[in-house]
Amino acid sequence: MQELGYHYRITDIQCALGLSQLKKINRFLIKRKNLAKRYDIELKNLKNCKLIHEGMRDNSSNHLYILNIDFKKLGTTRGKLMKSFEAREIGTQVHYIPVPSHPYFKNKNYSKINLPNSYKYYEGALSIPLYYDLSNKQQSHVINQIKKLIG
């Protein structure tokens, strides 16, 4: 975040689209839960990684699937690992950067706020693909590459 932003409101058309999607929400939630549970089963024994929300899938929309990776133990950095995934056509992201680390708040000296848990989480967080149209074949590819790169 570079600057303080505004509160943008959605249009009537966007609201109508959102309402139409609500009719499908149970299907969306079930699919995401099944995808997340498969990740839980397949990735639970990784040495250099912890599953953050394992066992809590039924109480979540499973919007994200985040791994907590010990990059030091793995002998790499998050950036290098992300590039390795990208080379294997797997998109990864970081959710979420602690607020005091954003440029806007750094410039306001918020970086001096002591938030050890936020930074500890951030140091190991890496989001892997989890979306409604993720096919079994695509998820298998993600799982296999995670096992090779993080195992």
How is the secondary structure organized here?
Blueprint: H1 12-22, H2 25-43, E1 49-51, E2 65-69, H3 71-74, H4 78-87, H5 103-107, H6 116-124, E3 125-128, H7 136-149
Antiparallel strand pairs: 1-2, 2-3
Give the % helix: 40-55%
Q: Which CATH architecture is right?
A: Alpha-Beta Complex
Q: Into which percentage range does the β-strand content fall?
A: 5-15%
The topology string of helices and strands comes to HHEEHHHHEH
Overall structural domain count: 1
Q: Which outline best applies?
A: globular
According to DSSP, the number of beta strands is: 3
Mean pLDDT: 93
- Helix/sheet category: mainly alpha
How many H/I helical runs?
7
Largest beta sheet, briefly? 3 strands, antiparallel
Structure characterization notes:
This protein has seven helices and three strands. Helix 2 packs parallel to helix 7. It has a single domain, classed as Aspartate Aminotransferase, domain 1, CATH 3.90.1150.10. The longest helix is centred in the N-terminal third of the chain and has 19 residues. Helix content is 48%, strand content 8%. It has a three-stranded antiparallel beta sheet. With 151 residues, the protein is mostly helical.
